[in-house]
Amino acid sequence: MQTVAKPRAPAGSETLWRLAWRRLRKHKLAMLSLSVLAILILVAIFAPYLAPHDPVAQPRGAGLRAMYFQPPSQTHWLGTDDLGRDVFSRLLYGSRVSLLVGFLAAFSSVLVGTIMGSIAGFYSGRPLRFYVGPFARQDVDWSFPFVLWRVLSWVLIYAALFFVVQIAWTLAERPVRAGLAGEWSPNALASTIGLVAAVAFAAFAAWRALFSRVRLDLDIVISRLIDFMLTLPGLPILLVLSAILRDPRSGIGQWMYGTFGTASSVVIIVMILVIFGWIPTARLVRAAFLSLREQEFTMAAQALGTSNTKIMFRHLVPNAMAPIIVEGTLQVGIAILVEAGLSFLGFGIQPPVSTWGNMLTNAQTYIFFAPWLAIPPGLMIVITVLSINFLGDGLRDALDPRRKQ
Amino acid sequence: MFNYILRRLGQMLPLLFLASVAIFTLVSLQPGDPLDELRMQNPMMTPEQFEALRRAHGLDQPIHVRYFKWLGRAVNGDLGRSRTYGVPAAEFIFEQRLPRTLVLTITSLTIALLIAIPVGIFTAVRQYSAGDYTITFLSFVGLSTPNFFLGIILLYLFVIFIPETFGVRALPPGGIPDLMWSDVQVGRATAGEFIRQWATHLVLPVFTLATGSMAAWTRFMRASMLEVLNQDYVRTARSKGVSERKVLYKHALRNGLIPIITLVGLSMPALFNGALLTETVFSYPGMGRAIFDSLVGKDYNVAMAALVFIAILVVFFNLVADILYAVVDPRIRYD
Amino acid sequence: MYRFVTTLVLALALGFAFAGPQDNSLTVGTSQEPVVLGDLLNVLGSMAIASEVELWNYVGLYRIDLDAELEPELVTEVATVENGRLVITELPDGAQEVEATLTLRDDIVWSDGHPITTDDVAFVYELSQTPGMSLSSPDYYARLGVEVIDEREFVVTWSPAQSSDLVGSPIPVLPAHVMRPVWDDVQSTVAGLDPEVDAARIGEIYRGFFTDFGSPAAINEGRTVYNGPFMPVRWTPGSALRLERNPNYHLHPENQDAYLRSVEYRFITDTNALLFAIVSGAVDVTSSVSITFDQALSPQITARAVDRYDIWFVPSATWEHLDINQFSHLQQVSDLMLDDVRTRRAIIHGIDRQSMSEALFDGLQPVSHANVSPFDFTYNPDVRQYAYDPEQSVAYLEELGWSRGADGIMQRTTEDGRTVRFELEFVTTAGNAVRERQQQFIAEDLRQVGIEVRINNAPASVVFAPDFLSRAYDGAWTGMFMFAWVSSQASVLNAAGYLCRNAPTPENDFAGQNLGGACSPEFDELRDQAVAELDLDLAVPIYQEMQAVFAEELLAIPLIFRSNPFVVTQGVVNYVASTFNQGYGYPPAAPELVGWVQNGAEQVFDQADYGELYE
Are C21 and C152 a contacting pair, CB within 8 Å? Predict the structure, then answer.
């Protein structure tokens, strides 16, 4: 409907940020939230110096039972958990992983989303050469990556066609053989027809693939991908993915562990959060690009022969930065909430590493006789996400030139 | 318009096909096998006997063969039986679980909307008033609270703390009552008893579930109304001396509701999705748990029936939302 | 005011509590729900709660009593060598064949009045022998034979026989007169399918056959009949299952009306919610699958117990232990010398199992010293015991060349000149709070003797997958694996775990239960002798010797035996469980004798003989 942002020369952008900062400072809640977040981050960084107890140390000796599930007291400000560990210290350490997951996931989501959205927006309506058959007449483009892709695409398409025939054969083999042996049945007839149709289709496609050329609109590909992702129910799919990635026997599980070691649990969570997290940013950036690319400065850059990549990431992305930052902020909150949910269902980060999510899960087991275990991690999640949401709201106002204070 | 709908319907099919392939693949890729536990419990089983068992569960075949077998039966309307429950998957999903989930989700959706719309209008009209700030703050809190945390706290409050401190009757700690509408029909219970029992069981999960959407929609309604109220035609109406009430309800509300309609349309599939976390906290046997259990237990037929059904709903309601959008907003035309 | 409030709460709670005796009903709280009832061949998988509920509505040929002794139920007497009903013959290959001649009582009928005959036995046998039927214990039915002599008499044959065959009911009984017509239809459907291509379809149809008689819908429609003291009449999935007295049951006591008229299972999947249901009096007793151990000891339950309900802890044969990877071709295993018994002794001496049992379980889940429950008749109390002794543990490690590094963790230099730290992987099921708590306790103890534990948990579906669990050989897990074996007496007698040849290796296609590859040839030899010895009196000393070897060699590290908590409202009698009652220890011992003292039910069994009361 309206233009998203006015184009600005890069030199002038500094004043834009300064202006935004001045506006943000007037937003009291946002500033309060910013300080709360700053404190939380400092606490997370300096947790080892702030924590009164070792977060993993368990008491030993006589009378152990009395040391478990202590209600808050002077020595243990937030009580002790099911193994006598200090809840306050665990909470401080827990903030490290929770915040790390939140920021890392948000950053990666926004990064992926920006790239996908940029491509979709920029190339919308400008289909790229995607497939050129081995015998197709073609424009001369002997650049190495494209030649490589050409050959690869032949392999892929013929492999796919072979696969189609193979599936058809696997499904139809038995009834068709029976049919040939003289035992005719409707099933045998249907199978034979299906098999013949599949083979005919594959043969026709293989013939066409020799000569045809296909151009592909990346916008359509990415938009359909988003449509497709949105048909999948998020949380259950994330759980399944988490189980697959963590499976120590699968190739990917081994690779994860080999590459990231004990940090793999964090990396897995971040990857999973990115799988659906990039979508909002991508839609947003795409919309912004659709209008930005029609503007004079883009045209000018193109006329000067600037490469597409450079136009996209040097000129367009900075101009779409404001909504991206707001979205990024909100994503941090979402990531923290989803991580907590995954942990609650037992698919998050595993003990002994404490996160707010898994502390809450653990506390839920004992909620009826040790309610004090559940409140601190739960409140920390609420406070953090609340601050992030307020900050996001403030940023939206501050960065949006249409809003007047 | 007609062509547009046709084209969209045409796009649905490949999308659904891909979604079903993806779901089937994901379920199969999961580590573990539903028969593992059996094998663990019975060490005396020989490898041949175990192989026979795998064959009887169809686990010996490659995944694409199994997928196409499933597809072949599914397009003929046969969704197979649940491996865990033995009952037909369609019966399990559509007769057992879906009605229960709908009771939960539709109630909370209705409540959320009934509260969010007027409150959103109120905050927009009284922008920057104390009421606006309070409600804005509360809705932010609602948005920032994990709903399972809210559920746990509510359980503690209404099942343990309040009943014990004030001696009032506790709310049921979860589950569903052993009283179906059929009992009322055959006269085993009164309608009042039926409603009372279901209401006491539903109040906590419904509240938990409604909080999040209530908060989001209040914010959304406010923003949408503010945008409309600042538009030229509203200002013109006002300057022509049209009463404030009329401006609000006749001119602004109609346009202000459009985004909400889209939002509600898009959240319809979630009604059928169930609410996994809330259902888990309240031991509510709904779709969310059914999907979760079927995925974890590799109950292909149930998982496929439920997830493909939901994918169809998502695509369908996207279309409906777009069409409604065009009906409500005369500025939008599709061709 | 406060006192008034408490009285009110109590009164409310008591109001609930007295609902039971008023209409002579019993409400059982459980955290699991069966998927079907009557799947007695476990075609849909075996589920503890289903077996427990089925105790009320299905009876077998024999009944296993609280002391794990066999008693006749549908038959006139238990087959023994003494009464001549059991005949053992030597097979040419050295194995043995056992023939049991059994006679059905003549006063037994199904709940519809139709007599129970050998046809019902033959029908189940026919089902069990159907190719493509997904039995959960195909090995057993492959060895089983049934031959009907007349309407009352039949012969069961096991060939080759194992001693475990003689400790349970030979074959379940299902109503042929109700089920056979449907079975004939099923078979004609299956006849039109190709057993090669449509194996999955056939399996599904067979499983569906059982569902169609045992699903909630089937039960509500009354599609089948029962032979137990009770019969299910109404099942609301996700909520409750109600059973009512079966008037045609043959063992009802004379004064039937003093005992239960109906039983209701309440399914409350969240154990916290179940805990509250107990506190509020909404359930009278708990099933074996209900609140966790921690919850049973929580002040919420114990503080309200006085004068209202008893909390019993019944020892179960569920054995928590650590399997240790002993495949020495693996670098990690040989570095840590896990295949050396001294290393395993260092580990066990470094774990304060007694303190763990006391701190975490109030001492109610006893420390185990070998793999057999103290309540099993083959139990050997005199095996080598390893007390908590960190010095001894360190001494063992030092003997093996380890010394503490700067960080307090043991390290040593290997023959090829590498320096290795004692970093031990520790795997268990994620999401099992009780187990994870023990795991963290153990990790802390081991850290103090210089062993660093690296926890690598995953959900049960992952760690119990054979390509993880059974692949210690390939290094899927390289250190310790904590889980439990649930055993009935039959599986104890099988003693198939921890045999050298049962280590999953490429040679046996990774089959076998000896997951860590522990190996003691002496143990294997004793086991083969014991299994072949069908005279249990002679077999017991051999089984005991096996436990001694097990403890000496530490084939695995024994931790504790679990106990099942049961909450039983005061006034309920004969709702009693024991370690091996009905095979796996589920309550009740005799369903027809459960009742309320207020209504005149007489106590026959005392839970105090089989469990410990929380006081």
Answer: no
Question: In the prediction, which pLDDT does B331 show?
Answer: 62
Q: Provide the residue range defining the domain that includes C83.
A: 58-206
What's A10-57 look like in SS3?
HHHHHHHHHHHHHHHHHCHHHHHHHHHHHHHHHHHHCHHHHCCCCCCC
Within 8 A by CB and 6+ apart from C392, the residues are C345, C346, C349
* Residue B36 domain boundaries: 15-78
In tens, the pLDDT along A54-64 reads 888 888 877 78
Is residue B178 domain-resident? yes
What tokens does B217 get?
């929609």
B72 touches chain C (CB under 8 A): no
Take residue C372 and report the two structure tokens written for it.
């057999």
Residues in C touching A351 (Cβ below 8 Å)? 436, 440, 455, 457
B55 touches C: beta carbon within 8 Å = yes
Q: List CB contacts (< 8 A) between C452 and chain A.
A: none
**Residues of chain A contacting C430 with CB distance shorter than 8 Å:** 346, 350
Backbone phi, psi, residue C102, to 5°:
-125, 150
Closest-CA distance of chain C to residue A362, Å: 7
CATH architecture classification, A16-59+68-127+218-405 = Orthogonal Bundle (1.10)
Cα gap B228→B332, rounded to integer Å: 16
Contact C136 B42 (CB under 8 A): yes
**Residue linked to tokens 């889980």:** C483
Question: Of the candidates C143, C172, C206, which is a domain's last residue?
Answer: C206
Number of neighbours of residue C413 by Cβ within 10 angstroms: 11
Of C172, C206, C240, the last residue of a domain is: C206
B18 reaches A (C-beta below 8 A):
yes
How many residues are listed for chain A in this entry? 405
CA distance B286 to chain C (A): 9
SS3 (DSSP) at A333: helix
pTM over the 0.95 mark? no
Specify the residue for token string 């990549």.
A309
Minimal CA separation from B253 to chain A, in Å: 20
A350 interface with C at CB cutoff 8 Å: yes
Q: In sequence order, which residues have a C-beta less than 8 Å from that of residue B105 and are 6 or more positions away?
A: B209, B270, B271, B272, B274, B275
Least confident of A146-160, B48-62, C95-109: B48-62
Chain C residue closest in CA terms to B95: C217
Query: How far, in Å, CA of C217 to CA of C211, rounded?
Result: 9
How far apart are alpha carbons B120 and B257 in whole angstroms? 11
Q: Which residues of A touch B291 (CB under 8 A)?
A: 233, 236
* Sequence-ordered list of residues with C-beta below 8 angstroms from that of C84, at least 6 positions apart, any chain: none
Are C289 and C266 spatial neighbours (Cβ–Cβ below 8 Å)?
Answer: no
Is the residue at B3 inside a domain?
Answer: no
In contact, C182 and C212? CB cutoff 8 Å? yes
pLDDT digits (tens, 9 = 90+) for A171-228: 777 778 877 777 777 777 888 888 899 899 999 998 888 888 888 888 888 988 888 8
> What are the E-state strand segments in C392-478?
403-404, 410-413, 419-421, 423-427, 429-430, 452-455, 458-459
DSSP assignments along B116-156, one per residue: HHHHHHHHHHTTTSHHHHHHHHHHHHHHHS-HHHHHHHHHI
DSSP state of C371: S
* Lookup: tokens for A331: 């994503």
Q: What is the pLDDT of residues C493-540, one digit of tens each?
A: 666 678 888 888 888 777 777 888 999 999 999 988 887 787 888 888
**Which chain B residue's Cα is nearest to A220?**
B11
Q: Which residues of B23-57 are buried (b: 16+ CB within 10 A; e: fewer)?
A: bbebbeebbbbbbbbbbbbbbbbeeebbebbbbbb
d(CA B280, CA C401): 51
